[in-house]
Amino acid sequence: MEETTDTIIAINKKDLKPGDHIYAWRFLWIYNHHGIYVGDGQVIHFTTPHAALDEIAKENPNIPMEEDDEDFKSEPCPKCGYIVGGSLGIGVMKTCIDHFGKTLHLYVYDVSWIRFWLSRRGTCCPYKAKPLDQTVKTAYEKLKTGFGSYHLLTNNCEHFATFCKTGRKFSGQVMAKRVAPGVNLEELPIEELEKIAAGE
Ligand SMILES: [Zn+2]
């Protein structure tokens, strides 16, 4: 595969396949939000209520947070039952794609670490993806059993989606927040990087 810095791949709703890991830059709350497309216009994703994110924002003033630009309370969505600002936004949930995000991108798997360092975090991962049908199966299992407590740095939406795709948690977008200031991630051994990315 050609080495490139461009791992940001926009994708149209109509081109999605069940089992695709997608993310959106603009979601209701945090910077890029991740989920697994499961077909029929539905996405399974892992999230947290507004109050918890407000706490995280206070504790981590350097992490960019997005404002919710919809009305705080809305009628339940006829397609997925989602209520903006309602209590559905806790843990693993299935919503329609419109309530997942607007500008969709396809997450890239099996990139070299070199390509990973050159890419924007939260767009790709060095692990190999499982077949699409297995990814969908895992996402539905977690919809039933949950994915533990949300934590932005150790158990977030990217951890959830990469777990469904590979069986291992990986979040590139918070790696830098998990090491002491001045530590150069690129100089750490891969085993250590994998632990940092997994939230361990
Ligand atoms: Zn909806």
UniProtKB/TrEMBL annotation:
It holds the Pfam family LRAT. The lineage of its organism: Eukaryota, Viridiplantae, Streptophyta, Embryophyta, Tracheophyta. Coiled coil: none annotated. Residues 23-173 form the LRAT domain. PROSITE patterns: LRAT (PS51934). This is LRAT domain-containing protein.
